[in-house]
Protein backbone atom coordinates (compact mmCIF):
# COMPACT_ATOMS: atom_id res chain seq x y z
CA UNK A 1 0.00 0.00 0.00
CA UNK A 2 1.55 3.36 -0.93
CA UNK A 3 2.48 5.71 1.90
CA UNK A 4 0.23 8.78 2.16
CA UNK A 5 1.86 12.21 2.57
CA UNK A 6 0.97 12.16 6.28
CA UNK A 7 1.61 8.62 7.49
CA UNK A 8 1.61 8.42 11.29
CA UNK A 9 3.62 5.21 11.48
CA UNK A 10 6.33 6.60 9.18
CA UNK A 11 6.55 9.82 11.21
CA UNK A 12 6.91 7.82 14.43
CA UNK A 13 9.57 5.58 12.86
CA UNK A 14 11.51 8.68 11.72
CA UNK A 15 12.08 9.77 15.34
CA UNK A 16 14.96 7.32 15.86
CA UNK A 17 17.18 8.45 12.94
CA UNK A 18 16.45 12.10 13.75
CA UNK A 19 16.94 11.71 17.48
CA UNK A 20 20.21 13.67 17.51
CA UNK A 21 18.53 16.68 15.87
CA UNK A 22 15.54 16.48 18.22
CA UNK A 23 17.87 16.26 21.24
CA UNK A 24 20.00 19.21 20.09
CA UNK A 25 16.89 21.37 19.74
CA UNK A 26 15.79 20.42 23.26
CA UNK A 27 19.27 21.15 24.64
CA UNK A 28 19.33 24.64 23.09
CA UNK A 29 15.94 25.38 24.63
CA UNK A 30 16.24 23.88 28.11
CA UNK A 31 19.93 22.99 28.63
CA UNK A 32 21.06 19.94 30.60
CA UNK A 33 18.74 17.53 28.77
CA UNK A 34 21.41 14.88 28.17
CA UNK A 35 21.17 12.05 25.66
CA UNK A 36 17.83 10.66 24.49
CA UNK A 37 17.27 7.07 23.39
CA UNK A 38 14.44 5.72 21.20
CA UNK A 39 11.74 3.88 23.12
CA UNK A 40 8.56 2.03 22.27
CA UNK A 41 6.54 2.89 19.18
CA UNK A 42 2.90 1.77 19.12
CA UNK A 43 -0.56 2.56 17.89
CA UNK A 44 -2.55 5.03 19.97
CA UNK A 45 -4.65 3.27 22.59
CA UNK A 46 -4.38 4.15 26.27
CA UNK A 47 -2.60 7.42 27.17
CA UNK A 48 0.44 7.15 29.46
CA UNK A 49 0.04 8.25 33.09
CA UNK A 50 2.32 11.26 32.45
CA UNK A 51 -0.34 12.76 30.12
CA UNK A 52 -2.58 13.48 33.12
CA UNK A 53 -0.53 16.40 34.37
CA UNK A 54 1.21 19.63 33.45
CA UNK A 55 4.02 20.04 30.95
CA UNK A 56 4.88 21.56 27.60
CA UNK A 57 3.15 20.66 24.35
CA UNK A 58 4.86 21.19 20.99
CA UNK A 59 2.13 21.46 18.37
CA UNK A 60 2.95 21.08 14.66
CA UNK A 61 -0.07 21.56 12.40
CA UNK A 62 0.13 20.39 8.79
CA UNK A 63 -2.27 19.99 5.92
CA UNK A 64 -2.57 16.26 6.61
CA UNK A 65 -2.67 16.10 10.38
CA UNK A 66 -1.09 17.17 13.65
CA UNK A 67 2.17 16.15 15.32
CA UNK A 68 2.44 16.66 19.07
CA UNK A 69 5.59 16.67 21.17
CA UNK A 70 4.57 16.07 24.80
CA UNK A 71 7.03 16.94 27.57
CA UNK A 72 5.73 16.16 31.09
CA UNK A 73 6.87 18.50 33.87
CA UNK A 74 8.56 15.48 35.50
CA UNK A 75 10.88 15.09 32.47
CA UNK A 76 12.33 17.23 34.23
CA UNK A 77 11.65 20.68 32.83
CA UNK A 78 13.21 23.89 34.20
CA UNK A 79 11.13 25.92 36.63
CA UNK A 80 10.68 28.73 34.12
CA UNK A 81 8.52 26.51 31.88
CA UNK A 82 5.50 27.38 34.07
CA UNK A 83 5.66 31.11 33.27
CA UNK A 84 8.21 31.72 30.51
CA UNK A 85 9.36 35.30 29.99
CA UNK A 86 9.76 36.89 26.57
CA UNK A 87 13.20 35.37 25.91
CA UNK A 88 12.06 31.94 27.09
CA UNK A 89 8.95 32.16 24.91
CA UNK A 90 11.28 32.83 21.98
CA UNK A 91 13.21 29.66 22.90
CA UNK A 92 9.98 27.66 22.86
CA UNK A 93 8.99 29.14 19.49
CA UNK A 94 12.36 28.12 18.03
CA UNK A 95 12.01 24.64 19.52
CA UNK A 96 8.62 24.17 17.86
CA UNK A 97 9.91 25.44 14.52
CA UNK A 98 12.93 23.10 14.59
CA UNK A 99 10.91 20.06 15.66
CA UNK A 100 8.51 20.76 12.81
CA UNK A 101 11.40 20.67 10.35
CA UNK A 102 12.72 17.42 11.85
CA UNK A 103 9.42 15.55 12.11
CA UNK A 104 7.08 16.72 9.34
CA UNK A 105 7.43 14.82 6.03
CA UNK A 106 8.94 16.86 3.20
CA UNK A 107 5.77 16.44 1.13
CA UNK A 108 3.57 17.98 3.83
CA UNK A 109 3.22 21.77 4.23
CA UNK A 110 3.64 23.01 7.80
CA UNK A 111 0.82 25.46 8.53
CA UNK A 112 1.95 26.59 11.99
CA UNK A 113 3.98 25.49 14.99
CA UNK A 114 3.74 26.37 18.66
CA UNK A 115 5.22 25.27 21.99
CA UNK A 116 3.60 26.34 25.25
CA UNK A 117 3.06 25.24 28.86
CA UNK A 118 -0.25 23.54 29.61
CA UNK A 119 -1.89 22.45 32.86
CA UNK A 120 -3.05 19.08 31.51
CA UNK A 121 -1.30 17.44 28.56
CA UNK A 122 -4.27 15.22 27.79
CA UNK A 123 -6.28 18.35 26.93
CA UNK A 124 -4.09 18.85 23.84
CA UNK A 125 -4.24 15.15 22.89
CA UNK A 126 -7.97 14.42 23.06
CA UNK A 127 -9.08 16.76 20.18
CA UNK A 128 -6.67 15.24 17.62
CA UNK A 129 -5.93 11.61 18.64
CA UNK A 130 -7.74 8.88 16.69
CA UNK A 131 -7.47 5.21 15.77
CA UNK A 132 -4.84 5.98 13.10
CA UNK A 133 -2.50 7.85 15.48
CA UNK A 134 0.92 6.53 16.48
CA UNK A 135 2.80 7.19 19.73
CA UNK A 136 6.57 6.93 20.22
CA UNK A 137 8.46 7.41 23.48
CA UNK A 138 11.91 9.01 23.86
CA UNK A 139 13.81 8.14 27.04
CA UNK A 140 16.77 9.86 28.72
CA UNK A 141 19.85 7.65 28.62
CA UNK A 142 19.72 4.99 31.34
CA UNK A 143 16.08 5.76 32.24
CA UNK A 144 14.27 3.18 30.13
CA UNK A 145 11.02 2.24 31.84
CA UNK A 146 10.90 5.43 33.91
CA UNK A 147 7.67 6.83 32.48
CA UNK A 148 7.95 10.02 34.56
CA UNK A 149 11.11 11.00 32.65
CA UNK A 150 9.86 10.02 29.20
CA UNK A 151 8.81 12.44 26.47
CA UNK A 152 6.49 11.48 23.64
CA UNK A 153 5.78 12.20 19.99
CA UNK A 154 2.21 11.61 18.85
CA UNK A 155 1.43 11.67 15.11
CA UNK A 156 -2.29 12.16 14.39
CA UNK A 157 -3.66 12.10 10.82
CA UNK A 158 -6.56 14.46 10.23
CA UNK A 159 -9.85 12.90 11.33
CA UNK A 160 -12.07 11.87 8.41
CA UNK A 161 -15.18 13.94 7.73
CA UNK A 162 -18.16 12.63 9.63
CA UNK A 163 -16.05 10.65 12.09
CA UNK A 164 -17.27 11.08 15.68
CA UNK A 165 -15.08 13.07 18.02
CA UNK A 166 -13.60 10.98 20.84
CA UNK A 167 -14.90 11.44 24.36
CA UNK A 168 -12.60 13.24 26.81
CA UNK A 169 -9.97 10.84 28.13
CA UNK A 170 -9.76 10.35 31.90
CA UNK A 171 -7.54 8.39 34.26
CA UNK A 172 -8.66 4.76 34.57
CA UNK A 173 -8.68 5.08 38.38
CA UNK A 174 -10.25 8.55 38.61
CA UNK A 175 -13.77 9.92 38.15
CA UNK A 176 -14.43 11.72 34.85
CA UNK A 177 -13.21 15.29 34.73
CA UNK A 178 -13.64 17.99 32.16
CA UNK A 179 -10.81 18.66 29.76
CA UNK A 180 -10.25 21.96 28.04
CA UNK A 181 -9.10 22.13 24.45
CA UNK A 182 -6.07 24.29 23.82
CA UNK A 183 -6.80 27.76 22.50
CA UNK A 184 -6.65 27.97 18.69
CA UNK A 185 -3.62 29.74 17.33
CA UNK A 186 -4.20 33.04 15.59
CA UNK A 187 -3.59 32.98 11.82
CA UNK A 188 -0.55 34.81 10.58
CA UNK A 189 0.02 36.77 7.40
CA UNK A 190 2.03 35.08 4.69
CA UNK A 191 5.43 36.31 3.66
CA UNK A 192 5.86 37.08 -0.03
CA UNK A 193 5.79 33.97 -2.20
CA UNK A 194 9.09 32.88 -3.79
CA UNK A 195 9.47 32.74 -7.54
CA UNK A 196 7.70 29.73 -9.13
CA UNK A 197 11.02 28.77 -10.76
CA UNK A 198 12.89 28.82 -7.43
CA UNK A 199 13.81 25.18 -6.49
CA UNK A 200 13.54 26.15 -2.82
CA UNK A 201 9.86 27.08 -3.19
CA UNK A 202 8.48 23.76 -1.92
CA UNK A 203 10.69 23.80 1.18
CA UNK A 204 9.95 27.44 1.97
CA UNK A 205 6.21 26.98 1.57
CA UNK A 206 6.24 24.51 4.45
CA UNK A 207 7.17 27.17 6.98
CA UNK A 208 5.88 30.46 5.56
CA UNK A 209 2.95 30.64 8.00
CA UNK A 210 5.00 29.85 11.11
CA UNK A 211 5.03 32.86 13.49
CA UNK A 212 8.39 34.05 14.86
CA UNK A 213 9.27 36.38 17.73
CA UNK A 214 10.93 39.66 16.69
CA UNK A 215 12.73 41.88 19.23
CA UNK A 216 15.00 44.96 19.10
CA UNK A 217 17.84 45.29 21.60
CA UNK A 218 18.93 48.80 22.51
CA UNK A 219 22.11 48.03 24.50
CA UNK A 220 23.47 45.74 27.20
CA UNK A 221 26.15 45.69 29.89
CA UNK A 222 27.14 43.82 33.05
CA UNK A 223 26.89 45.51 36.44
CA UNK A 224 27.78 44.37 39.92
CA UNK A 225 25.08 43.16 42.27
CA UNK A 226 25.60 46.01 44.75
CA UNK A 227 24.98 48.51 41.93
CA UNK A 228 21.83 46.65 40.97
CA UNK A 229 20.51 46.90 44.52
CA UNK A 230 20.88 50.69 44.48
CA UNK A 231 18.68 51.16 41.42
CA UNK A 232 15.35 52.87 41.87
CA UNK A 233 13.02 55.37 40.21
CA UNK A 234 15.13 58.17 38.73
CA UNK A 235 18.35 56.09 38.55
CA UNK A 236 20.40 56.38 35.36
CA UNK A 237 22.40 53.61 33.69
CA UNK A 238 24.97 54.58 31.06
CA UNK A 239 25.95 52.24 28.26
CA UNK A 240 29.08 52.20 26.11
CA UNK A 241 27.00 52.07 22.94
CA UNK A 242 27.02 55.27 20.89
CA UNK A 243 23.68 56.97 20.31
CA UNK A 244 24.32 56.84 16.55
CA UNK A 245 25.01 53.09 16.49
CA UNK A 246 22.52 50.75 14.86
CA UNK A 247 20.14 48.70 17.00
CA UNK A 248 20.25 44.89 16.96
CA UNK A 249 17.27 42.99 15.54
CA UNK A 250 16.68 39.52 16.97
CA UNK A 251 14.40 36.84 15.51
CA UNK A 252 13.59 33.99 17.92
CA UNK A 253 16.43 35.18 20.17
CA UNK A 254 19.01 35.04 17.36
CA UNK A 255 20.69 38.09 15.83
CA UNK A 256 19.14 38.71 12.39
CA UNK A 257 20.22 42.22 11.43
CA UNK A 258 20.62 45.87 12.46
CA UNK A 259 18.75 49.09 11.82
CA UNK A 260 17.91 52.65 12.84
CA UNK A 261 15.17 53.63 15.28
CA UNK A 262 12.39 55.54 13.54
CA UNK A 263 8.99 56.95 14.52
CA UNK A 264 5.99 55.56 12.63
CA UNK A 265 2.99 57.62 13.62
CA UNK A 266 2.88 57.35 17.41
CA UNK A 267 4.79 54.08 17.44
CA UNK A 268 8.41 52.96 17.50
CA UNK A 269 9.82 51.32 14.38
CA UNK A 270 13.08 50.04 12.93
CA UNK A 271 14.52 50.85 9.51
CA UNK A 272 16.65 47.86 8.45
CA UNK A 273 20.17 48.76 7.33
CA UNK A 274 21.96 45.41 7.63
CA UNK A 275 20.86 41.79 7.46
CA UNK A 276 23.12 39.12 8.88
CA UNK A 277 24.64 38.28 12.26
CA UNK A 278 28.36 38.62 11.45
CA UNK A 279 29.98 40.97 13.94
CA UNK A 280 32.29 43.57 12.44
CA UNK A 281 35.74 44.14 13.88
CA UNK A 282 36.04 47.59 15.39
CA UNK A 283 38.55 49.89 13.74
CA UNK A 284 41.61 50.64 15.85
CA UNK A 285 44.12 53.44 15.59
CA UNK A 286 47.67 52.30 16.31
Q: How would you describe this structure to a colleague?
A:
The chain is of the alpha+beta class. It folds into two domains: 8-205, Chemotaxis protein chec (3-Layer(aba) Sandwich), CATH 3.40.1550; 214-275, Surface presentation of antigens (SPOA), CATH 2.30.330.10. Helix content is 17%, strand content 27%. The chain has helices at 8-13, 19-30, 86-103, 122-125, 201-205, 225-229; strands spanning 36-43, 55-62, 65-72, 110-118, 134-140, 151-157, 214-217, 247-251, 254-264, 267-275. The strands form two sheets. The protein has a six-stranded antiparallel sheet. The chain is globular, with a radius of gyration of 22 Å. The relative contact order is 0.15. Mean pLDDT is 78; it is low at 175-194.
Order of strands across the widest beta sheet?
Answer: 1-5-6-3-2-4
Mean pLDDT equals 78
According to CATH, what is the class of the largest domain?
Alpha Beta
Unreliable segments of 5+ consecutive residues: 175-194
Round the Cα radius of gyration to an integer and report it: 22 Å
Distance between the termini: 73 Å
Dominant shape: globular
Order of helices and strands: HHEEEHEHEEHEHEEE
**CATH fold name of the largest domain:** Chemotaxis protein chec
Largest sheet: 6 strands, antiparallel
Structural class: alpha+beta
Percent of residues in helices: 10-25%
* Total DSSP E strands: 10
- The number of distinct structural domains comes to 2
What percent of residues are in strands? 25-35%
Amino acid sequence: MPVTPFDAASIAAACAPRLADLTNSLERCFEGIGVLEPGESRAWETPPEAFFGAGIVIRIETGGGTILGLLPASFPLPEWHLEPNEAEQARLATLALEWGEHLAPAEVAIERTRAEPIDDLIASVTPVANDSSCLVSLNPEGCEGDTLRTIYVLACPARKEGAPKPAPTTRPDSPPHATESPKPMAPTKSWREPSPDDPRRARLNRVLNVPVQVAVRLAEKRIELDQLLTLGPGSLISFDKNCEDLLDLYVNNRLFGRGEAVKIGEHFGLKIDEVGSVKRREERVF
